[in-house]
Structures are given as C-alpha cells and as structure tokens.
Amino acid sequence: MSHKNEPAHDLNSQKDQFVKYLDSEIIYLDKTLMRPGWTKWAIIGSIATVIWIIINRLDAGKYLIGNIVIITVSISLCIDIYQIIKIFVPKINLPLHEKRFSFSTYVLGSNRAYLTLHLMRASLVIIIIYLMSNIPSQITKYSIYISNIMQGTAILSLILCSFFMLPMPLYESKNMRSKSINFILLVMLLCSIVGLWGLIELLRVSRDSISIEDIQIPFLVYAIYYLFMLLTYCSQEYPLINKLVNIKRFLVFNKISLEDARKQAEIAITGLKISEIFQDIINEIISDFQLFNECVDKLSMKFETSNDLLSEPETDVKIRNLDIVKTSATDYEAKTLMKNADRLIDDISIKVKKFHFTTDFVVGVDKNMSNDINNVLNQITEIMEVSGLRFKQLKQKIEDFYKVLEETEQGSSHTREQ
Predict the structure, then answer these.
(1) Minimal CA–CA distance to 141: which of 48, 230, 70?
(2) How many beta carbons lie within 10 A of that of residue 318, not counting itself?
C-alpha cells in the first residue's frame, strides 16, 4: 500500500512546492510595485506642493510668459531627443530560443494612462506652438509640429494596439526595427533637433530679458509632469500578479493540472516563444486542411464509383446504373460535402490572411524573425497550393462526370425510343 501512495505523495509534494514558489513570486512583484517612498498619496502631495511653489513664483510677477513657454517646450524636445537616441543605442543580438513575446493587451494594457500622458504632452506642445506669435522662424515651428505629430501618432497607435491580442517582444535586440521605422525615428530626431536649435536661438536673442523665475517655472512644470508619470505607475494594475494569483487558485482547487499550471506560469513570467504564439492558429489551419482533404477524398471516391458504373460496356447494364448514379450524384451527402469543402477553403483563406497579418506585425517589430517566419509561411503556402490543386482536379472530374452522365442519358433515351 505504501508503494501505491508514493506517486500521489510525490505529486502533492511537487504541487505544494510550486504553490510556495508562486507565493514568493507574487510577494516579490507586489513589493516591487509598492515602490517605498512613492505611494499614491505621497505623489499627490508632491504635485500639490510643486503647484503651490509655481503659484508663489508667478505671484512675484518677475517673469515673462513667452520665455517660460519657450523653455518648457525646449525641455519637452530635449526629452524626445533623449528617448529617440536611447532607442538607437546598440543592443545584444539574442538567439531565437531566448526571444520571448507576450500580447499587447498585457504589455500595453496596464500602461494606457502612461501613454495617454505622453500623448497629452505632444498635443499640448502642438497647441502651444500654434498659439505662440513670438517664433519668427517657420522652419522651427513646422519642425516641432512634425516631430510631435509623428510622436502623437505613434503613441496613439500603441494605445489602440493595447486593446488587441497582438504579439509584442519582451526583449530588445540588435537590428530589430525595419528600415521604414528607423527612417521615421530619424525624421523625428532631426525635426526635434532643428526645433530645439530654433528655440535656443530665440532665447539667445532675448537673453537679457530672461529672469531666474523664467528658468525655475519650466523645470517645476516638468517636475509635475514627472510626478504624474509616477502616479500612472502607482495607479496601474500589474496583470502578471493577477495571472499568477489565478493560476494558484485554479491549481489549489484542482481546476488545472500541475503540468498546465507550470506551463501557464512560465508563459506569464518569461513570455512565449515565437512558435508558441502561432501554434494555435497553425493548429486550426492544419485541422481545417485535414477536414478539407477528408471531404475531397469522399467526393472523389463517390464520383469515381459513379464513373465506373457508367463505363460499363453493355448498354442495358449502363442504363440500369443510370438511375443509381443520378441519385448518388445529387443526394444530400454529395451536396453537403461540396458545401463543406467550399466553406473550409474560405475559412482557411481567412485564417492564412490572419496569420500573414500577425507574422507581418512580428517582422515589423523584429526584422530578424523574417527568415524563421518565412519558413513557416512557405510550408503553409505549399500545403494550400497542393490542396487547392486537388480541389480544382476534383471539380474538373465532376464536370467530366456530368458530361458523361448527360451523354449516357441521351443515349439511353435514344435506345428506349428504338
């Protein structure tokens, strides 16, 4: 009896150890999110304090609003330039087996407030530059317009992506971006630099009118912006914690096996491999191909049998078989098989288009994946071509069959008249 209970005891022991691991991971992530010293109330208090300081500076009356706005926009452009340059910093090129992906809903979904804050900054810069009348250079104005419009469009695209299950990389690798994305980033960088240079030149011309308050207030405004960024971090829910808690609950209540729990936890913590992202849709496509081939095989067998019956050399036998063949060729099963085959072809085409879109998205964020993905695409395309050819051949056989059937009917009518 003791030997029989050993496997169950080992399984329970492994289960307990895994539950303890999930507990430790959840506690670690929770502590990381708490960020000692930067609680929500501390940040709100800091924002209120900075606003009070700005009001006191403005109350002193020793400032020029034009200088404040120019310096504030210059700080915003400096942030943009720093962020773009940071993107171009060389990264280590990871091998395929170390690359992990997650879905945009999880990666970007919890950062919508943070992205919206960036979008608001870009929008405010555009509005401010449009309303300013003391910027004589149209090149400076349009450079700032272009850089912030492109930035705002990119952020808006990320916010929209956060509502869909699109694969997103959890890594940074060398030469990830395509040439078009690099070109867009370079245009943004160039426009930001030109715009910043124009504003600095404007400040140089009016340097005698710049007071200490004109410099302090823009930096205080940026401090408020930074505190709002921290507030969005503290307010966001961390989807990974919720995922691990659910895995733990399902495991404890025996709703999932230990093996499935480990697999789900690994995916949640380390992400998905590129093959795992496409596995579900590939399985669906393969399953549809199998059903399609079954329909084609049954239809081929049905019409080949009918052809054999009509190919009898004796006229009397051929006439007797005619009614059987007509019933077989127009019965419910044959019609259903043809409809199913047509439907499956349409379903496969839609799923392959979806697969193409997903793979194009992955290649867009990491062009190094193109060779591996193209190999999978070529295999699916080859299967589609073979299946499509089989279906065309079957349709041709059916057309030939109906021609033979019509000729046999005419021959039988002539024989009966005689």
Answers:
(1) 70
(2) 18
Q: How many CB atoms lie within 10 A of CB 32?
A: 10
Neighbours of 94 (CB within 10 A): 17
Give the span between the Cα atoms of 109 and 302, in whole angstroms: 53
Strand partners, 272: 101
Element (H or E) spanning 101, and its range?
strand 101-103
- This model's pTM is above 0.85: no
Give backbone dihedrals phi and psi of 135, rounded to 5 degrees, phi first. Answer: -105, 100
Dist CA 233 CA 248 (whole Å): 25
Q: Where residue 66 falls among pLDDT bands split at 50, 70, 90?
A: confident
Burial 176-202 (b: 16+ CB within 10 A, else e): bbeeeeeeebeebbebbbbbbbbbeeb
| C-beta of residue 116 within 8 angstroms of C-beta of residue 158 | no
Q: Are 267 and 246 in contact (CB under 8 A)?
A: no
The closest alpha carbon to 158, from 215, 119, 210, belongs to 119
* CA atoms of 40 and 49, how far apart (whole Å): 14
- Residue whose structure tokens are 């067998």: 301
Interior angle at CA 242, CA 241 and CA 246, nearest 5: 115
DSSP-derived secondary structure letter, 237 = -
